[in-house]
Every structure is written in C-alpha cells, then in structure tokens.
Amino acid sequence: MNMKTLKYFIVSCLTLLLVWNCQDDDNLDFIKEVNAPSEVSANFLPMLDKNNGNDGLIMITPNAIGAASFNINFGDESEIATGVKQGDAVVHQYAELPEDEFYTVTIEAIGITGLTTVGTKELPVVFKAPELSCDIEEDDIDITNSESISKQVDVKVTAEYGISYAVYFGEPGNDDPKTANNGESVSYQYQEAGTYSIRIVAMSAAMETTECTFDFPVTEILQPVVKSHSEPNREASDVVSIYSGDYTNISLSEVNPNWGQTTVLTEVPIEDDNTWYYTNLNYTGIVTDYGNPTDLSEMTYVHFDYWTPNATKLGLKLVNTVIGEEDIEFVATIERDNWVSVDIALDDFAIDRSGITQLLFDTEGANADVFIDNLYFYKPSQVATTPEYNAPSPTYGAGDVISIFSDSYTSVGISELNPNWGQTTTLTPVDINGNNIWLYEALNFTGIVTDYGNPTNLSGMDYVHFDYFTPDLTPLGLKIVNTVTGQEDIKWVSTVDNPGVRGTWVSVTIPLSDYAIDPSGVTQLIFDTAGGSAKVYVDNLYFYSENGTQPTVEAPLPTIDASDVMSIFSDSYTSVGISELNPNWGQTTTLTPFDIAGNNIWRYDLLNYTGIVTDYGNPTNLSGMQYVHFDYWTPDATVLGLKIVNTVIGEEDIKFVPNVITGTWVSVSIPLGDYNIDPSGVTQLIFDTTGASATVYIDNLYFHN
Fold first, then answer.
1. How far is the C-alpha of 166 from the C-alpha of 200, rounded, in Å?
2. Phi and psi torsions of 521, nearest 5°
3. Where are the alpha helices (DSSP H) in 91-169?
4. Three-class DSSP category at 7
5. What are residue 543's DSSP bridge partners?
6. Would the pTM count as exceeding 0.70?
7. What is d(CA 510, CA 98) in angstroms, rounded to the nearest whole number?
8. How do residues 202-259 score in pLDDT, each as one tens digit?
9. Which three-class secondary structure state does DSSP give residue 216?
10. Where are any strands of DSSP class E within 66-115?
C-alpha cells in the first residue's frame, strides 16, 4: 500500500495520551497510594491552522489519579504554568528544534494531601511530516489480534518525528478515531470478527501528516485464556460440590453418558485449573449415584461458571429419579467471550431435592461450545455477619494512649473520615450494646485524617491497636502516613494466603517500629483490602506505650455469652475440668500461678512446650465450637503455637501465632476449621515455642462459636 502525505489535516478532535515515567519510589495503584497522585499523564493536541502557519502550537491537558492541580514546566525556559486544575488545559507555542533534540516537559501533580508526583517526557518538535513505512513487515507499525480478549486489535505505531497517531478502526457506525502517543499502543474491540480497513494517521508538530491503510482480519478467541472465578468466602461445610477445584467433589458415576446427544466432553486445563469443555453441546448429563441419591435439602443455591463463544441458550436441569421429578432453569441472558458466574435459587426448581441423581446442561437443541467450572450447591455461610457482642474493652491507662476511635478514651480530633478519594467504601456509625463502632461496607480502602495543620506526634508510642470483625475473607492492612515527610508504610494483618479470622472480633496489635516512617508527624491512617471489597467493623483504634518484663494490667475481659463458650481457663467462665496441667513430658517449662487485680493468670517460664489434659476417660467434644481463643503476654517469645490433640483416634495439629508481639496483651482467635483433626474427642492442648525457651503469660483460654 502507498504512503500518502496529507497537506491539510484538521486535528481539533484528536488528543494524545502520553503516560509519564513516575519518579516516585512506590509505583502503586491508587488503592494503595491514596495520598500521592499516580499515573501522571497529559493530552497533547496540536492547534494547527494552515492559514496562519502556526506549527508547534500545542495544547496540553494534564491529568493524574488523585491530583487536584498541576505545575507544568514546558522545557523551553519559558514561564512555568502553575495551578492548572484537573481537567483544564494550557496552550504553548514551541519553537522548532534540531532533529536529534527534544523538549523535556515536566508535569508536577499535586494531591489533595499536598504530596506531589513528578513525571517527565521528551517531546520532539520538528516541522516535518512523520516518516512512517506502511510495509507491515517493517517495525514502524504493529497490528495484532489480542491473545487474551476476543475480537480485540492492538496497534502500535513508531514514526520518525512523530508525536502522536490516530487509528480509524473501520467498523461501520463508529467513525471516531482512537489516539495514542508515538511508540505506545492503542486497542479496540470489535463487535464481530471479520476483515476491516484500518487507517492510521501519524502526526508531528507540523501541519503535514502521514497515512497508511491496511485490510486486517479480526479474529475471535474460541476458548478462555484465564481460569474461571472462585468463591473463597464459602466454607467447605456449606457446599456440595459436583465439579470444582476449590472444594472436595462428590463421586460421580457418569459424566456425559451416552443418551443420544451430539455433545463431546473434554477436560481442559486453563492456567492451574481443570475445566469441562463441551463441544456441539445440545444436552449432556451428569449422574451422581442412582443407589445413593444426593440430598440437597439443606442447600439454597446452585452455582456454576460458564464461558462460551457462540451459545444462545443454556439451562440446567435437576432430576430426582427416585420419585420421577425434574425441572430446568435457563440463564436469563447469555454473555459471550468471558467467564460468567450463575447462581440460581434451588426453590426455583419445582422438585423434591432430597434425592437428586442427575444434572443436565441443555441448549434446547442449539449446538454450542461451552466451558463449565465450579458447579456446586451451597447454602449461606454460617459465619456471623454482624457482631452480637462488643470487642474487649481496652485496659491501658489514658496517659499511655493516643486514641483515634474508642469509647474507652478521649480521642484526638478527626478532620476527615472516609474522605472521597475514589474508594467504593461506605461508612456507617453503628451502636452495639451501647458502644460506638465504625461499619465499613464495600471496603477497598478508606482514609482517616487527623489534622494536616497539626500532625499527630506518635514518637512516644510503642504500638498501634485496633479490633476488627468481618464476615469476609479478604486481605486487611493498616497504612500509616506522615505527609510532612512524605513517608508511608502498610502492615497486613491478613493476606490472600492467610485470610484471617471471620465472624468474631479479632484484636490486632502492631509495633510502631515495624512501620518504616517517622512517627512524629502522622496525619493519615488508611485501612486497605488490596483491591478487595469487604464488610468490616472497626473499634478501639489507638496508639499506646507499655514497658516492662511482666504485665501490669489484666488481659481484656471476654464479652462472649457463656452459653457460646467452652472454657479451659478463664475467671470469666466456668471451665471444664483439667486433670493434668504442665505434666512431666520432658519439657523445661515451669508453671506459676500469677495474679493481677484478683484475676488468675498462668505464667510459664522456660517455655519450650507444655501440656493441658482435660480428661482421657471423657474427651471434650468441640464439634459445636467454631474458634479457639487465648490471650498472651510475653517479653521475649518469638514463636508461639497451640496444638490440639484428639487421642481417641490419634489426630493432632498445631497452629502458630503469625507474628508474636512482645510487651503487651495480645488476643488470639483461630478457627477450629483450620485444625486438621476430628474435634469431637479432644483431650490435650499444648503450647509450643518450637524449642525457643520463653516467658509467656496465658489467660482466657476457651473455645466459642
């Protein structure tokens, strides 16, 4: 195809997006970087008029996430443009440079906190038409079908003297071009596959442009390239799984049995997940066990994920062959070329679901290619979604505390709470048993601003503490920001791999020394879920100091109702009998009763391990309990774990505290489901430091639901 040099071109509708190389040390997305602007960029628009000959006149529109205003240094020793508001533009006349030179344009983005992010870009201003080869075999133009998004075309143009380029993708009904800066990519997704005429117009700082046109075949991706969705928030006990890598599946006696269908079934691995791939699907069957029907009476929904390039109908039939009942429900609207999650209420199926033996996918005869994953039945989680009791009340003296939010203390002033920084989070103050609590919903991140004009000095504090309650499994972290020095750091109390505890209050204590910041000028605290979306209650957010080699205050008093507790050791409850305490199993550990304000505490010295035996003749049945709880205080331990033993069948498992905190009472709650044991016959509990001799105080050791 021939290259044409255009003499006249109107560019008033075109813009160039130039993404800058940020100079901040932390190049994070806005969720994690709410205090400083990110993704600093600018739109460059040549303001060319062939009658006036104003080559080099450029309109610059800066933008950045989290920016309130900008300062623009044009790079030519002219006066800096200051205070440019987000969405506003400035126009600047550039003089021509030699071909091998550039203007370095600098954009300083200023956030609402006063912190800044600086970006730079070399801008060639040469009054020549862009030099561009229209030979597709050359490197000037790269046009490709996306490998991951069906019917998407990616274009990259690199022209000598070029500043920007526009792409007209040639789809009927869409005449608007998409623009990008020289050497970067632009993408477009078509409605249908086929061959389209794609026109590229390269632009420089001069009136002249260079144009190329290609007939390009747009292709459709016929199978997913990423695995389907998972549902990490569902407990395995609430699920009856047919086919899913997230759960243990029940046994199936037949899959795609020969019932006269055209369907062919292949199991296809996608990333690290196996998926059912049905081709020519008109219908297909899944048989569990005719001799032992599956009882779904306790389940509420059926779930599956599908991906299809061509289906128009898709339904799921459930069959009770015991009494001859069946019913089918269809997906309301079929979406193509991406994974879609489907949840159907089982009450919508007019059958007795106590004896299900068959499931059938059906397209009503319209043969289609369909991928299926995560086919299971489930009921709503039994984990509490709202706290019924309050978090433990703090016990530290007011003189040792700087409180942000707690009814137990006078808190410092807060100038902004959940300020509008682009988050999805909503905040609602709630009252539980007369105690004020923050309820965050759809929490991806949220900010707490004390006072920018009078930063909070935390230099004398040793720890930050807060209590949280959540029904969702999600990462949760607390970021502390010193906007005076521009320092910030985040510490995670739960992660994707270690998602924490749900359905009960969790007390978090983090040494301030773990935060790589100057604590003398703190103005912001930020709760963050690493892009997740969670429901989180927060109480007792404060900083405090505590020194010494032994506790001077008692552990927080439990508030859980006695009917929900099976206590081993706590003055707050009637405990089960203990037949042996620190029995002679070869340990170095010594045990001494310890008293604070009339409250009994266990003091272990030289603790390497120690046992607690309830009753071998009458094992403790913990089947109805969901959590094990204890409070510890230690001046020197580095490792601390709790082992639970079922000596009836010889099962045991140990879970360790993720991060041992010294010099303060720490409350620990561990889901019993994390222990790989049968909880119906427990006789031993063992504290273990893996051989690291330590002093550890223990109180309030109990199980609860």
1. 6
2. -140, 55
3. none
4. coil
5. 402, 464
6. no
7. 58
8. 988 888 889 999 999 998 878 888 888 765 557 778 899 999 988 889 999 999 999 9
9. strand
10. 67-73, 81-85, 90-93, 103-111
Find residue 659's DSSP bridge partners: none
- The first and second tokens of residue 637, run together, are 């331990």
Per-residue pLDDT of 640-687, as tens digits, reads: 999 999 999 999 999 999 889 888 899 999 989 889 999 999 999 999
Angle at 627 between CA 623 and CA 633, to 5 degrees: 140
Question: What type of residue is 184?
Answer: E
| The token pair that represents 340 in the structure block | 């879609």
What is the Cα–Cα distance from 377 to 359, expressed in whole angstroms?
12
Domains identified in the chain and CATH numbers: 1-219 (2.60.40.10), 236-378 (2.60.120.430), 398-544 (2.60.120.430), 562-704 (2.60.120.430)
551: left (phi over 0), alpha (psi -120 to 50) or beta: beta
Contact 255, 352 (CB under 8 A): no
Tokens 């789809």 — which residue?
A: 171
Give 384-419 as a DSSP string.
Answer: -SS-SSPPPPP-S-GGGEEEEE-TTSPBPP-SEES-
The whole-number pLDDT of residue 33 equals: 37
> Per the structure block, which two tokens stand in for 649?
């069948």
| Tokens found for residue 599 | 């409250």
Both structure tokens of 81: 């443009």
State yes or no: pLDDT of 25 exceeds 50. no
Instruction: Specify the range with the lowest mean pLDDT, choosing from 6-15, 134-143, 579-588, 670-679.
Output: 6-15
Say how many CA atoms lie within 13 Å of 83 toward its Cβ. 0
424 backbone φψ class: left, alpha, beta (φ>0; ψ -120 to 50) = alpha
Q: Residue for token digits 């991951």?
A: 148
Give the separation between CA 353 and CA 455, rounded to whole angstroms: 62
**Tens-place pLDDT, residues 74-87:** 999 899 999 999 88
Length of the chain: 705
